[in-house]
Design brief:
heterodimer; A: alpha+beta; Immunoglobulin-like; four-stranded mixed beta sheet; 28% helix; B: mainly alpha; globular; disordered C terminus
């Protein structure tokens, strides 16, 4: 049976909005070209365009403030995070992921974790992500290939990222920061029970 | 009032022809590198991962450097033939240094297989490198040479303009805000040049600090630096370079479009406020490249989103509405130059919108380092900056009548535009499908959908690039035939209004 996934991801929403914006731009271009054969006094044109510009400016300002108000409450950073049910330490190396439950007291170079880990669904997981060598990016993909969360793995720093896995199954970890020649072959698996 | 002699104009014209030919040679070569990369990702050819990342490094450094150089060279030409006497000797010195830097980068890439990416994300050049160690040193030194060249050129232009227009603040248009009568009108191109080059100078200084730190570590491997600090430095440098490339182009859109519409486009208070605000936003927008570094101080993260969002106000309210006021009911004859400028502004608008979407932190946590990122910057580079450059090249090589009548070139132009947007659409689709960027191929990805979608989109992109190159070739024939012809000095004046 063919199932159609109607769930609108952030990726799809971004694409739809950007496509609509592009259509609007094309409409303006077509309008300008198709009406350019007429001649109108530049003062009269200025008056019309400036009137429209004033309205557009107000609309844009309101839209920007509203979007900032809404989106700046959805930040992924530490001060916006909840209380984690489980903590996982993640160390990236060239070119493998190492993961282990809990907070590790070992240095990134000495850390020995596995590239597979099992975690519970419906629980808030906090990943403490760092690197033993160069910059990497810890990106979690669900089984349908949708990126659901990411943070950089930077040497000398630990980025704290939280994620709640809603569905059971296997999630894959990909590296999303260029980290050397085998960068595209650096994977791990998170089993969600 | 300033008098520029016909001999000086001839010299400057020769100089811009040298730059234009250099651009016309290098541009398709760098596209070919992109084509090879997409062919490898599409599993059409197999070039090996080391070669892929070497090509990626050359393509990124080459394109951003070439487009900035050509944008700056065109500004140089327009300023030196109309508004201020620029030192042609210094111009050739800058050009020679740039060639020297490019040769160094090409040797490091093609012979040493240097492949740390355009941004040499510290400490990657020194850890786990499979390329020759000397190629890291040569790349850093070559980039320093390029930086010195651009800095010298930019500082010279700002200095000469400040002298010509009675001080630095006059270049920013502040005399329009005092309420007093303005003694000498400030051409928009002069103000935009200044506003583009000031952040450029600061960014290049940041780039210089970054490169010197890298060079120190190259010679003394026991040294280490803070990777977060170096990431800030390199993205401030890189983002600003790409950003001001587009603003440099807008300088000549403001200067040249009125010649086709017959409507003047002057500096006024709104324009001054708007462009000074742009100067401010350019300086802070780069923070959006570090959203996924959660340890970056929160105020910087928020500043990145604020600067990115608010930069849309001067861009659309002033410049894009300015273009509308220029064109609406203007009875313009649609030669290739105004078309290129209009379609270029459209590309800037489309790419800019996608950039603003991605500059939302809550969205970036999903789109960061997917193909959405190359999607939006290719939109405003390939279908923005490049179209502005071709508009300029047609302006330089064709009379207005020739621009209007050259249907062959127009066909090439539209083929390039349509293929360009189709090519970019494959990147957007990749972003929508979470396809990672900077992957030599998708074969290893343990998610079948991601592997196959990534490869399929890359295959489609290959056809788009081939069509795009055909459009480019057609435009080349038209430009090179006309560019090579000796033009009497009266024609140059005529073409420049």
């Amino acid at each position: 049976m063919v199932t159609i996934n109607l769930f609108l991801t952030i990726q799809k929403s971004a694409a739809i909005i950007s496509f609509l914006a592009a259509v609007l731009v094309v409409c303006v271009v077509v309008f300008l070209i198709s009406t350019s054969s007429k001649e109108e006094d530049k003062t009269s044109v200025k008056h019309k365009v400036y009137k429209l510009r004033g309205r557009y400016f107000l609309l844009l300002l309101i839209a920007i403030i509203a979007l900032l108000f809404l989106s700046l409450r959805l930040l992924p950073y530490k001060s916006f995070q909840g209380k984690a049910d489980e903590i996982v330490t993640v160390v990236a190396t060239q070119w493998a992921w190492k993961m282990e439950p809990g907070i590790s007291d070992k240095s990134p170079a000495q850390f020995t974790g596995s590239n597979e880990i099992t975690l519970p669904s419906q629980k808030l997981i906090k990943f403490l992500v760092t690197s033993a060598d160069v910059n990497h990016n810890f990106a979690i993909y669900n089984s349908e290939g949708v990126l659901v969360g990411q943070t950089q793995a930077m040497p000398q720093y630990t980025n704290e990222m939280e994620h709640q896995f809603e569905e059971k199954g296997d999630y894959k970890v990909l590296c999303l920061e260029y980290c050397g020649i085998p960068h595209a072959y650096m994977f791990a698996t998170i089993h969600i029970k | 009032m300033l008098q520029i002699s016909p001999i000086e104009i001839k010299k400057q014209r020769k100089f811009i022809v040298v730059w234009s030919v250099t651009f016309l040679i290098a541009f398709p070569l760098l596209i070919l590198l992109g084509l090879l990369m997409r062919m490898n990702q599409g599993e059409v050819i197999k070039i090996g991962m080391d070669k892929f990342y070497m090509l990626m490094t050359l393509h990124g450094l080459g394109m951003s450097g070439l487009l900035f150089s050509m944008s700056f060279a065109a500004l140089w030409y327009l300023i030196s033939t109309r508004y201020a006497k620029l030192n042609i000797g210094l111009g050739y010195f800058v050009y020679t240094l740039i060639l020297l830097g490019v040769v160094g980068l090409a040797i490091a890439g093609l012979m040493g297989k240097f492949a740390a990416g355009w941004y040499l994300l510290y400490p990657l050049p020194f850890k786990g490198a499979t390329w020759a160690a000397w190629s890291t040193g040569l790349s850093i030194i070559s980039l320093i040479i390029l930086g010195v060249a651009w800095l010298a050129g930019m500082l010279h232009v700002i200095y000469v303009l400040a002298k010509e227009y009675g001080g630095f603040t006059n270049l920013l248009g502040w005399q329009y805000l005092s309420g007093k009568e303005v003694k000498r009108e400030l051409p928009p191109i002069v103000m935009i040049t200044t506003i583009s080059l000031i952040p450029g100078v600061i960014a290049f200084l940041a780039g210089a600090v970054f490169l010197i730190m890298n060079l120190l570590q190259y010679f003394e491997p026991s040294l280490t630096f803070d990777p977060l600090l170096l990431k800030n430095l390199v993205f401030f440098f890189g983002h600003t370079l790409v950003n001001i490339t587009l603003y440099c182009c807008l300088g000549w859109v403001y200067a040249l479009l009125p010649e086709y519409t017959g409507r003047e486009w002057k500096v006024n208070k709104v324009l001054v406020y708007s462009w000074n605000a742009t100067l401010f936003f350019i300086m802070f927008a780069y923070f959006h490249h570090l959203y996924m570094d959660f340890v970056q101080p929160l105020p910087f993260q928020v500043a990145g989103q604020l600067a990115s969002y608010f930069s849309a106000i001067p861009a659309t309210v002033v410049t894009m509405f300015g273009v509308i006021a220029q064109l609406y009911h203007s009875k313009i004859k649609w030669g290739i130059v105004p078309v290129a400028f209009l379609i270029g502004v459209a590309g800037w608008a489309i790419g800019g919108f996608a950039a603003v979407v991605d500059s939302t932190i809550a969205v970036n946590k999903i789109l960061h380092n997917t193909l959405w990122v190359p999607a939006h910057f290719h939109t405003y580079m390939l279908t923005g900056v490049v179209l502005f450059i071709f508009g300029f090249l047609f302006y330089l090589s064709h009379t207005k009548e020739e621009q209007y009548k050259d249907k062959f070139a127009k066909f090439g132009f539209w083929l390039f535009v349509i293929a360009g947007h189709a090519f970019i659409a494959t990147f957007y689709s990749g972003g929508m499908n979470s396809i990672p960027r900077r992957y030599a191929d998708y074969k290893g990805i343990p998610i079948s959908y991601t592997h196959h979608t990534g490869a399929l989109l890359a295959q489609i992109a290959v056809y788009c690039i081939i069509a795009l190159l055909m459009g480019l070739f057609i435009m080349y024939i038209s430009i090179l035939i006309k560019l090579g012809k000796k033009k009497p000095i009266t024609h140059i004046h005529l073409a420049e209004g």
